[in-house]
Each structure stands twice: as C-alpha cells, then as structure tokens.
Automatic annotation (TrEMBL), chains A, B:
Protein name: Arginine biosynthesis bifunctional protein ArgJ
Compartment list: Cytoplasm
Enzyme class: transferase
UniProt-listed CDD domains: OAT (cd02152)
Keyword terms, alphabetized: Acyltransferase, Amino-acid biosynthesis, Arginine biosynthesis, Autocatalytic cleavage, Cytoplasm, Multifunctional enzyme, Transferase
Gene: argJ
Species of origin: Marinicrinis sediminis
Amino acid sequence: METEKYQVLPEEPLRLPKGFLAGGLHCGLKKTERHDLGAIVCEVPAVSAAVYTTNLFQAAPLTVTRDSLSAGEGLRAVIVNSGNANACTGKQGLDDARKMRESFAEALQISAQQVAVSSTGVIGELMPMEKVMSGIERLPAVLNRDGGEDFCQSILTTDLVKKTASVIVTIDGQPVMITGVAKGSGMIHPNMATMLGFITTDAVISEPGLHALLKEMTDATFNMITVDGDTSTNDMVLAMASGQAEHLPLHEHHPDWLAFKQAFAYVAEVLAKAIARDGEGATKLVEVTVSGAPSTEAARAIAKTIMGSSLVKTALFGADANWGRIIACVGRAGVVVATEQVDIRLGEFSVLEKSRPVPFDDEAATEYLKTADTVTIEVDLHDGEYASKAWGCDLTYEYVRINAAYRT
Amino acid sequence: METEKYQVLPEEPLRLPKGFLAGGLHCGLKKTERHDLGAIVCEVPAVSAAVYTTNLFQAAPLTVTRDSLSAGEGLRAVIVNSGNANACTGKQGLDDARKMRESFAEALQISAQQVAVSSTGVIGELMPMEKVMSGIERLPAVLNRDGGEDFCQSILTTDLVKKTASVIVTIDGQPVMITGVAKGSGMIHPNMATMLGFITTDAVISEPGLHALLKEMTDATFNMITVDGDTSTNDMVLAMASGQAEHLPLHEHHPDWLAFKQAFAYVAEVLAKAIARDGEGATKLVEVTVSGAPSTEAARAIAKTIMGSSLVKTALFGADANWGRIIACVGRAGVVVATEQVDIRLGEFSVLEKSRPVPFDDEAATEYLKTADTVTIEVDLHDGEYASKAWGCDLTYEYVRINAAYRT
C-alpha cells in the first residue's frame, strides 16, 4: 500500500483554495428560510472542466454551462440554485438559465461565458425569475473566503447532511488545496435524485489535464454510486483550478502527479460515499468491491449491478447474509466471467468459495449486517487482474415512504 | 383491430390439449402439505422447444433439459419440483438433476433424453434426493387428463395465486388447444424470484417453427415483465406440441398461422401479466406502452426501463402522477430518441405533450392511480413506428418486508 501524500483538513470550517470566494443566501425558491442560491467565484479565470448526466433530457443549466466552457476563457464563477431544476421547461427555461448567467456576470463585471449555471429541484416548473434576480443582485455582497459553508447549504435539497471534503497535498514542496462540495439524492417535488459536485483547487494545471483527471475520477467515484438506479436530468460535476499555488504546472510526468491524483481521488470518493450514505431512507453505507475481473469495465458492471439490486438492498436492510442474490447479480451483469470460481465475502464472513456455499456463522453475520456502519461486500472472480468499487445504501421502508408520498 | 380468432376457456377446470396428462403431489420439499413435485407427460413424443434464463449461473436442471432437447427425440415429459432450485450445487447438483430425469424416465418406461427437468426454490442447498425419489415413484400413478390443476399447484412457491391460461383456436376448421401454466416471483429461501412457464398444445408444428414462435412470444411477453430487475438462475419457458389435433402442419405460410400465433401470444401474455400482478408485495398491475419508437428494441428498452424504475414504482404505490420520473427513464434507457416531442399519458390523463408538462386534474389522476386495478402508462415518442409493452407492479412496503425478512 502506498503512503497517502495528502493531509485531510477538518470538515469545519470549510476552507477554500487560494483565489476562491463562496457564499449563499435565501431568495425564496425553498419555502423555508434555508439558503437556495449560492455561488463559487474565482478571482482569476479558473481552468475548468465538467462532466454531465448521460440522461438524454438535460436541464437548461447544463446547456448554458457547456456553452460557457466551450468558450475556453476559463470560468470565473458558478451560480447554483436549489428548489427548481429548470428541467423540461423548454425555450423559456433556456432563456431563464441564460438570464441567470448574464445577470450574475453583469453583477460581477465579468463576461457571461465565464459563468457556469447549475440547478436542482422541481422539474417541469418555470424558474420564478423575480426571486432569482433579486437573489443574484444580493449575491456578490455575501461572497467571501469563509463562504464555503453557506454555499454548501445553498445547494442542498432534502439531503440530511452536507457533503464536503478538503485536503492539502504537497506539489514541488508547496501546499496545494483541493476542496469539494456535493449534494445528493434528496427527494424533490416531483422528485428526482440529483447529484451535483463542485471541486476547487489552487493547483496549476492545464484544461485537458484537469478534464482527463475529472473524467477518470468521476468514473471511479461519482459514477459508481447508486441509490436507486435512476439518473437525473441535472447531474453535473464541475472542477475549477485557480492556479494560485506556487508550483510548476502539473501534468502526467510531473513527479508529484500521482500525489495530486490521489488527493483528488480522495476528495471525489469522500463526496461520492457521503452521497451514497445519505441516500433516501438509507440506514447504512454499502461498499461493493469486485476484484479478479477480466477488465475494469467488467468489474464496474458487476459492482454496479450488485449495488443496484433491489433484492440485495432489501436483504442488507434486513441484515440477511443472502449470497444467492449477490451471485445472481454477478450472473446477470452482462459480462462473461468464469462461473466456477467466484468467492464472496460479507465483511469478514466468507460465504461462497469457488461458487459453492461455505458454512459460516449466520448469527454473527446477521449481527455484523445489523450493526455495521459500513457494510462491505467483496466479490473475487479469480478471472483477471482488474478491480472496482461501488457504493450505495440499503432499500428500506423509509425509501418507499419518501418516494411514495403524495406530492403535496 | 383484427378480430381475435381464438376462444378463451375458463380457468377452472384447467383443460389439457389432446395427448397430455399431468399431476402433482407432496414429497416433502415444502414444509407444509402442499404439492411440491409435478409433471406433464405426453402420450407421444412432443415437438418441444425451450428458452432459458440469460443468467450466467444456470441451475443444474437447465443443463439437463438442454441436453434432453438436444437429442431431438421430442419430449415425453417434464418433471418439476418446487422448494429447492438445485442451483449453485456443483457436480452433486448436476448428478441429482440427471438422476431425477433418469428415474422418472424409468418409471414411465421412456428414454431419459425424452424428459425435461425444472426446479424452483432454495438455492445453494443439495436436493433431498430420498424425498424426491419417493415422490418420483408415486408420480406416474397420479397423472391424468384432469391433473393440470395439481401440476399447477406443485410448481408454486410463495405465489399468492396460480397462473393459467387456455384457449381454443381453429386451424383448418379443427379445434386446437393451447394451455399454459406458470409460476412467478415468490420469495424463496434464500430468496430468488424464479419464473417458470409450461405451454402445451395439440397443434401439429415443426420444432423450428415452435422454437421460433416461443422465442418471439417470450421476447414480447415473459421477457417484458419485471418485478425487481433481478434475473433468476432457474427461469425457463418450455413449449410442447403433441400434434394430435387434426390439421395440416402449421408454418408461416399456413392460412391460419396468424390465428395460431395470436392464440399463442394471448396465452403467453396472460401468464406474463399474471406473474407481474402477483409480484412480491404488489398492489396493482402496471402496463407500460411505448409507441412511436424508432425500433422494437428501442421501444422495449424504454418500456423496461420505466417498468424497472424504483422511483416510478414507488410513485405508483403512492398514487403520484409523477411524469418527471417517467421522462427521466426515457432519457436514460440507452436509446437515442428525439427529446422534444414526447407525450406521456397516465390512464386517461395526458400529463406531458411534446416533452412539456400540461395541466391535468391532479386529484382525479391520483384517484385513478389509487383505485385502478391495472394502471396504464403510455409514452409516445413520435420518432418512429415501433411499439412495445412491458408489465410490472408497484414497489411497496410489503416488497421491502418480504425481501428484508431474515431467513428463518
């Protein structure tokens, strides 16, 4: 095991990398007095990259953000609202997202294409632009170096907890900070679990380098969580690098590249796991590890199939060491693997070896599943050298209650 | 709409096509005194075809059945047990399945490869062969023309109701019967929803013709139902034709081919819908119709994605006319469709037109979702000429309870 070359910072107070300000306020999109509009702003054009939902129906803000990034000027700001997703809102929705971008750019006296826009909340309802515009007017005044916490609050919907991660990694002997903020799967009228992630750093890095890193890390973390298998119209992860740390530009051959990559991966993984743990109705975090796979793609497909199975998820809620449901997922993941040599472990309990059940202490296993804060499922295919992890949660009465509740 | 050319027979008493006998008995695989071993037997070698689960981990009986069918002698019998799936049981399991085949063949004085074997129940436990063998000894004596009902009972696990369908269709002026029996998604220790279907007919048809028809009908019916997205190790649908009806052999150019096909489709669809309606914890049957698709595959992928969505299924349990979750499924089904012209109807309620929400009577829609015995979701993509249906059920507290219950 390699030593980790980064230092994890405390969650509170949330620190921002050099060059960044943040803040949030209540403009009236949420019914209660909670923050619903926030922004991260960079003092200089930040090298920026984003990944988006694969859903064909993409919300208006995603179109606007793509347009801003395509200008290649570097982002100076991202503005985010919660309470309304601005999805399935047609031409008016697109006009509204553009207006949010332009008004915030004007307020900051920067160009419109230096602003990204992100929304989460109700879909199919037009954005109440009067409220939003009044919020945008007030927003610049609340931005500051300690505003990460307020920003954090402003992007939450029915998330039970805020999700942040922050680390310092040493590059060329200089401290470089990476700070991430995310929101997860809260129930939204008319209900959609949307995942948003914002990662800032003061590292010096090129746009292609940042984009490749973000894509690679998203595939291994944010794209490996599942709460219920549904994919939102608004999902987006945005990375911004201010370049204000004092080191030589990062690239694949930089001696500290691996350290930076590990630190970035840590931030992405903490956020992804926090989203999974806070899944609707969840009582526990579940981590599935598939190893011995013939390819990374195979390992990922199987890990996600296990983590997405309602039968596996209800068994975990019921503390049932049900390996039958797990092996059935391995077999239906759409990946060809050797069927005679699969090992399965639940926590410390080996339950299947070479695809055959082995005796285990059922009572102790049940106790483990009942009490563990994080349940681990390990599947070794003995059919290659690749591995992957997926994260999710159990399927509970509370999930059904939350999602079956009448819209009111 | 074409007129249906078949006559639906009453469910009780279940009639068998000419040439078939059936029966069932209790041999001790189930703890209570319910039937757990049954058979369908044909007086002559029946033209036979089967389709199997796509799960990589296939139970031993499937291997044995494939072997029998590959001999091409025509099946004289299928023996089915419930209570033990004989899956993940290794070489011993395969030996046991073979022994079931050979012993039953011996009891009937036919060749082993004229017998198919099918099992459903617990996985990972060896078949209690002493009980099974005593049952096989007694089985021939209980077979008779009215034994369909007993057979039906013998294949159920925790199904709440039996699933049958029977029709008469006229071919060359002669009555031809098609009778189907199925079992669905019952909870089995350690829990797996297995689907089994057995369709018998006295039609005169070739093996390739029967196989092609079974495959086509299974793709449109049994393969279009989803209870929780999991695929069992034991799923199988078997068709047997005794050829004892008096008509010219059926083939694609026979003037009554379409009538036969419709009648066969009816039987398969009734069984598939019965399985969906009896899904674990279900309170209602849900029928999703996707039309205006660029291909059948696209229509099927979208229909199955909608029907498989936990968010859609919980909304239906909660009587929530939540079109947002439906459109999100259309967008993540892995199929490229035009995103600006999607219509969605829930029952009689138009909720989305050209991908935009339209006002509807929310209270009346909720009332419909609450009270309808079968809820229909119609999605028109306006992007082609193909259509497909999928069936399933809602996701309820009871589903979680059934599947989270400790194995005891």
